């Protein structure tokens, strides 16, 4: 929904009705992730994508039917051996798409959610997409980390208590609300959207009720240490991949916003001191990637000593030649880091693409980060067999 929010919100504010199809589950080589959305506007226009073009026509027609009837639908699109092109999903994947009617009446919380996204506040939207009682389809909960209250809402005393707890709305069952709230907080913490299944009244070991949780977490962070030309290229690629990018260097003459226009923040500080402060402030999590490009031991070693001791970060990579790497590892061992901690370091940084320029090197670093996130091997697909798309390699990436 995030990628189509501006168009959706404009129609919603104008009092229009929109059909929206959202990928809620994927299997095998599905081309789009859970949470990808497509809109069918009141003028008949299509915005967004649920499959990269494979089943958009079928979803378009279903969305028009849903807008007319007002009844949501959960549809599975895939291929079969008997009729591989029945729905046009030729990639071999399977998609579950939830199609609903969106208007001020059916989705009154939309502007509130949009405000959270604009402000970078974490919010999860849990929607009932399947239930034995059709009257409960489309019921929604908004889940936020406890203690976060939406600043633009005026709520009564009872709702205020729910907001402080981090929950607003209802599925019609207090038991289900409590279970969904707890599970959605976990998904929000790692920035992952998926379908949860419960019994009709929220029983954890039951089945019959399926709830799709959109987890809108703030962007994952990319910390780039070393204000060099390679850092500018890495910041540019990191921003393109959706990271909140910070460039940090202790040298004010080099760490300037004009040299790093693609970075969200440029910080002048000693790298290890900055990282320690960010950890202390709770701004480093399991989705954070750290790229150390200084290849100067007086900066690298204290910084990596902090980074490699963190319990959860998605990636730590350091630039340098083989000789620099060997010297760096010896110095890090002298700090007391053990072999398990040292094994978390990607050094020399990046995949072997034969990169030479800053831009090519940035692509090789990004490729290594992506491979680590999804469990890829870095091999040429033409030389492999089996599935193209991997499941997430570890919880903690977006």
From TrEMBL:
Domain XdhC Rossmann span(s) in chain numbering: 222-369
Domain XdhC- CoxI: 11-78, 117-199
Gene3D superfamilies xref list: NAD(P)-binding Rossmann-like Domain (3.40.50.720)
Domain of life, per lineage: Bacteria
Record Pfam families: XdhC_C, XdhC_CoxI
Protein name according to UniProt: XdhC family protein
Classification lineage: Bacteria, Bacillati, Actinomycetota, Actinomycetes, Propionibacteriales
